[in-house]
């Protein structure tokens, strides 16, 4: 069964794709931001590890909410996925770099 452009089925698939991107992609991005901040804050601000972890965890709720809002405000589901993938790749690279610094 083909999904025609402009059909109700296509619209539902695009909304479902955005919902999945917001739920899982937003969670992945928030997790990466939390990990990066928990490692970076002691190096940058001289904060204790516990304080850095608490701050990073609290900020992750805002990052998750912003990611979900952004996914639904993106022009297309493809751009939403691409934006989450690029942001996750950036924070993933930062996490790898920070893990190398701490070793």
Radius of gyration, in Å, reads: 17 Å
As residue ranges, the low-confidence spans are: none
Task: Tell me the structural class.
Answer: mainly alpha
What's the overall average pLDDT, rounded?
A: 91
Strand content: under 5%
Report how far the terminal alpha carbons are from each other.
54 Å
Biggest sheet record: none
- Portion of residues within helices: over 70%
Which overall shape is indicated by the principal axes computed on the Cα atoms? elongated
Characterization of the model:
The mean pLDDT is 91. The longest helix has 37 residues, at 8-44. This protein has 103 residues and is mostly helical. It has 3 helices and no strands. The chain has helices spanning 8-44, 49-73, 77-102. Helix content is 85%, strand content 0%. The radius of gyration is 17 Å and the shape is elongated.
Secondary structure: elements and pairs:
Blueprint: H1 8-44, H2 49-73, H3 77-102
Helix pairs in contact: 1-2, 1-3, 2-3
Features:
single chain, 103 residues, mainly alpha, 3 helices, elongated
Care to give the gist of this entry?
By secondary structure, the protein is mostly helical. 85% of the residues lie in helices and 0% in strands. Helix 1 packs antiparallel against helix 2 (49-73), helix 1 runs parallel beside helix 3 and helix 2 packs antiparallel against helix 3 (77-102).
């Amino acid at each position: 069964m083909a999904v025609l452009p402009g059909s109700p089925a296509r619209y539902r698939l695009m909304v479902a794709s955005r919902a999945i991107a917001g739920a899982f992609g937003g969670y992945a991005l928030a997790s990466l931001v939390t990990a990066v901040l928990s490692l970076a804050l002691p190096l940058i601000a001289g904060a204790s590890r516990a304080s850095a972890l608490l701050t990073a965890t609290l900020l992750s709720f805002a990052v998750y909410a912003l990611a979900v809002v952004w996914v639904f405000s993106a022009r297309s589901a493809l751009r939403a996925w691409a934006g989450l993938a690029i942001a996750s790749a950036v924070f993933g690279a930062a996490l790898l770099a920070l893990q190398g610094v701490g070793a």
